[in-house]
Model the fold of this input.
Amino acid sequence: MSAVPSTRTAARTGLALFSAAALALTLSSPAAATGSRTITDGGTTYNLSLTAPDTANASGQNITVTGSGYNTLQGVYVSLCVVDGAQGANKPSPCLGAQDESGTTGASHWVSEFGGGVLPNSSTFGTGGTFSVQIHVKADLGGGNICGDTVECAVVTRADHTDTNDRKYDVHTPIDFVQDTSRRPGPGVSAGAGLPAL
Done:
């Protein structure tokens, strides 16, 4: 005759399974979105791939963006920009931090074989036209451009200032912004009690 688990034992087992699942979810990496595009430039075909987190904190967050398959002879900016239409249809603009050639805002990163790695927030390409960079993103780009509210935004690459009107290297990776609820006041606590109003 097999033993039937008690209600308490069943509850403990269920709680343990729920806790393990919650821990696995907490430890898993954030979901990512990938943009891709195949182009031909100078008779060579490039399979562009751009990957970034698919969500970020609306008030601001540093994210890691990776790419591969890029033409190492053409520098690109990696940034959060307003996008309009399909990749390559219209220049992604405006961008958070604008066209930051000095690399001072942290909102964009310049990848180039011709000067990359000399200025802040810049680097050269890795083997196979790869890169892995960090940029700062937030929902409010300024000038009334608020991602997901007044405009559509994406993490993008676009040709750098040496060929700013070249749309071949425009790759879009969609991103959604979420509010940081961990900083909201609890019940009975006003926003003025040491916590900013959101």
